[in-house]
Amino acid sequence: MAQRQERPARTVHTGRVETVERLTPHMVRVVLGGEGLAAFATDGHTDSYVKLLFPPPAPQDPEPFDLERVRAERPRQEWPVTRTYTVRAWDPRSRRLTLDFVHHGGTGLAGVWAAGAKPGDRLRLLGPGGGYSPDPGADWHLMAGDESALPAIAAAVQHLSPDATAHVFVEVEGPEEEQGLGGGEGVHVHWLHRAGRVPGSALVPAVRALDFPQGRVHAFVHGEAAFVRDLRRLLRVEHGLPKEQLSVSGYWRLGRDEDGWQASKGEWNQGVEAEEEAALARRS
């Protein structure tokens, strides 16, 4: 009988809150620092993400925190809850990690924590992961998403070369949620206002109406799963783009918390891909 291989322990980093800033009515920026981030490093991807662990550290918690041991020895209801967030910025010299949180009042977990965070508070995290950065060899870039994708989109825009061409579509609730993204003269930012409608109501028609420039595009489309599915179909089926030119993923799904979405995401993606392949076959 083959022996079960032990999964290597994942490093749990612990950041200390240095600053908290309200960027817009519904976006809170938290900067973490401290010695607990000494082993943290990214691969430079603009969509780098971390898994935040809740609840935050308590004084009686053992350090270093052994997540695998907790999961092995405690009942599931006592395991930390994880929430996935994009690394807005990471400065390896000062070891400061910037995270932007969407805050919807008293609902949710991570956003509520961020809105009430104070300097000196601590937060544990795993990671980072990630795999997308704008391809410098692309002729132009397409970036589209909602508030959940805004940190990754902003990081990607800052990563572009000064002469890069990009069309950036960001759907937010209203004009008060817009942020400065920067970028060179070839970066065209389109802010779209949802105004109480379902996510993607303004975004999908705007991307569909874009007159695609000539040349090879590198596309980044992330956010609520339903509109991501629609835009993926637009790019793959109607524009015939190969998967290699796309970074497309549903960060969340309307009506599901992260735990419920992650549990069903694989099946959802399989269904989307099957529909997509069938549509491509009909067009061939």
Summarize the structure.
It contains 6 helices and 11 strands. The protein is an alpha/beta fold and 284 residues long. A 6-stranded antiparallel barrel has the order 1-2-5-4-3-6. A 5-stranded parallel sheet has the order 9-8-7-10-11, with helices on both faces.
Features:
2 domains; Elongation Factor Tu (Ef-tu), domain 3; alpha/beta; single chain; 6 helices; disordered N terminus; globular; six-stranded antiparallel β-barrel; 284 residues; five-stranded parallel sheet; Rossmann fold
Mean pLDDT: 92
CATH class of the largest domain: Alpha Beta
Radius of gyration: 20 Å
Helix content bin:
25-40%
In the CATH classification, which architecture of the largest domain applies?
3-Layer(aba) Sandwich
Low-confidence stretches: 1-7
**Could you describe the largest sheet, including whether it forms a barrel?**
6 strands, antiparallel, barrel
Relevant CATH superfamily of the largest domain: Nucleotide-binding domain of ferredoxin-NADP reductase (FNR) module
Number of domains: 2
Q: Give the helices and strands as they follow along the chain.
A: EEEHEEHEEHEEHEHEH
Shape verdict: globular
Give the distance, in angstroms, between the N- and C-terminal Cα atoms. Answer: 49 Å
Strand order of the largest sheet: 1-2-5-4-3-6
GO molecular function: oxidoreductase activity
Domain FAD-binding FR-type: 10-135
InterPro entries: FAD-bd_FR_type, FNR_nucleotide-bd, Riboflavin_synthase-like_b-brl, SIP_FAD-bd, SIP_fam, SIP_rossman_dom
Protein name: NADPH-dependent ferric siderophore reductase
